[in-house]
Amino acid sequence: MLLLQIVVAGVAQGCVYGLIALGFVLIYKATETVNFAQGELMMLGAFAGFGFMALGLPFWMAGVASVAAMALVGLGLERVLIRPVLGQPAFSIVMLTFGLGYVARSGITMLPGIGTETHMLAAPYKGAVLRAGGVVMAAEHMVIIGATAVLCTALWMLFRFTRIGVAMQASSQNQLAAYYMGIPVQKLNGLVWGLAAAVATVAGLLLAPITFVHANMGFIGLKAFPAAIVGGFSSLPGAIVGGIVIGVVEALSGFYLPEGFKDVAPYVVVLIMLTVKPTGLFGERARKKV
Amino acid sequence: MRFVFKTHYDQDIALARHGGQRFWYGALLAALVLAPWVVPEYGIAQLTFVLIYGIVAVALMLLAGFTGQFSIGHAAFMGVGAYTEAYLGARGWPFPLSMACAMGLSGAVGLVVGLPALRVKGMYLGIATLSFGFIVEEVMSRWESVTGGSAGKSVASPSLFGWTLDSPAAFYYLCLFCTVASTLGVLNLLRASTGRAFVAIRDSEISAQSMGIQLARYKSMSFSLSAALAGLGGALYAHKIQFISPEQFSVVQSIDLLLMVVIGGLGSMHGAFFGAVFLIGMPQLISVAKDYLPESIRQATGLQGLVYGAVLIAFVMLEPMGMYGRWLKIRTWLELYPFYRRGMFKRQKSFQKSERLK
Predict the structure, then answer these.
(1) ipTM of the complex
(2) Model pTM?
(3) Fewer beta carbons below 10 Å: N end or C end of chain A?
(4) Membrane-spanning regions, if any (chain A) (predicted)?
(5) Do A103 and B138 touch (CB under 8 A)?
(6) Which segments in chain A show pLDDT lower than 70?
């Protein structure tokens, strides 16, 4: 039973990694940019949620408001920062997102009285436990798992059934061909950034009741890279599966292995994955002919 | 503007293109040698840090700027060098020997990390090195019998041929020697066939391979050399700062190192040193500027990160060639004065290039 409990906690944590990784994958597929500031977007989202709650909105309303606000932030970032530099080497754009991470992190720290503190996000379900046949599960974990499932279904429906989703898929597979088909690729790239920021915000709001809201919570984004790699960097379901794998491995190694292994386990997994199967579990195998 | 008419094949690969360059680099070296007599002690300490980071920047430039393989774990190589040096130094090994071991060990570790690099490219490699950086950071803080754990480890001054280099000036000269030697070494490597193979790999792996360049061999060579140089930088850093702890070699530090070479200007040796000057000089500038800022901003902890991030974003967006590119433009403007045109350095191709299938 204890094992099951650990696994559930690991799955919940892994869902958060998976949601952040989902943001990476969305942006990578659309603009071929690896967004190293994805964790910082999550942090900003959590702070937005905290801010809206401080204004007096109830939790759910604050959640919706911060997701909407962060989607706008994502749109704006793509328009202001990313679009002008597309076409430069991928490395430069990666550095740009590093810079974005720096600015977001230090910008939040510079808010007097807010940025340097840790805050608690008072979710209504916080502290509740569910009992199912001798297994005690924290409500926070169950909400994370449930919300991830709902969000994934929504995204799947977006990509499967709506024109925008299909157009996004088309432009991520072959941008030039999508241009020729009359798909407004640049506008879609903006939307993808908005979507990624919104997903990151959901991750932040889900994580906040467990870890508190603080300026450095974005560093968890660095653990989402292993998730994205394990799942395959260009696969949306892979991101979630990879996140869950990383979360469970982390939880199990934290319990069974000596102290210290918990923090490196995700990175050991990703190194093994890169050596054995660099494309990840669900990665597409693509080859370029000269 | 000076035109160099080449009359001999050797001129193509000469270190200095004409006498003027030889004069200015000589003058720079003379100024650096004479600096301890003129510059106050604090300035010498800062210069020493610039030299140490210069070595690391040259190392990272060799890997990222010239071979096109980028590493988000270079501080870990510095850490390996620093801890090896500290450990062997405390056991009483002579300095040249322990330094050689530090370089050798970090080079060997670099080779091991380079192995997955043979299979993966681009950002996958970045994440592999990032993972490696995290693992080393954890090992440094857990392996207490060797590293002293998170409590840190103190490092004594090095002694060379019976002298203890405990004065700032003496250590400065040691660093100057190491920096000049490693820079010249890397420059010579780059104009030899090995260096040209590196650049070919950076520009197109497929073309390089079809020209008969063994990708695996040259990539791992580049990784190993770069790691060894970073280890040298780390060892000198350990002696300079005299106290090392794992958080000095963390992944955040690695990102700072990348920031240094990108702001300096990827793909140029000048850029490596511009970047090192930026990394060391910026905190000084900020602390000077703080006196003129309003109270609320002065007290904020995130100011330095904000400035770094903003400068990085500004450089990527406005001047992708970094500080070296800016310097090139200023120099060309001065040389061509009435004839300079704004678009002279504009990139010819600016369409969206796909790197996914590279």
Answers:
(1) 0.85
(2) 0.88
(3) C
(4) 6-28, 40-73, 85-104, 135-159, 191-213, 225-252
(5) no
(6) 283-290
